[in-house]
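Hi C.,

You asked whether I'd gotten around to modeling the 112-residue construct. I have! Everything is below, sequence then structure, no commentary in between.
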Amino acid sequence: MGKVRATEWNADATKTKYIQESDGKLTVNNQQNLNPLMERNKKLYTLNDGYTKSKDMRRVASVPPIILQIWSKEYNGTNIWWGLPKDIQKKIMRTKLNSSEFRYFRTSEGSL
């Protein structure tokens, strides 16, 4: 078991721990409590159809930054979501949010 060298709270409500392992390696551990976001998403899902009054914009999902990091790591081995090209980001979002596995990130009905 390693020794926690530092812990920091980030602006996006994630908690980062820097752990010094016994073999000298440094482990970076990110955590985030997703329960408040999931509860908010459930309420928004049943609130209305997600469209603005003018019907020119639609609310579809709320995905926390830590999940975007995980999806980015799955796609290209790095957790830098904003470093991915926009077309790749859209492809990942469409695939993930249209699957039933990630339905709790959705804030309105329909598909992307």
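If it helps when you're writing up: The mean pLDDT is 88.

Thanks,
B.
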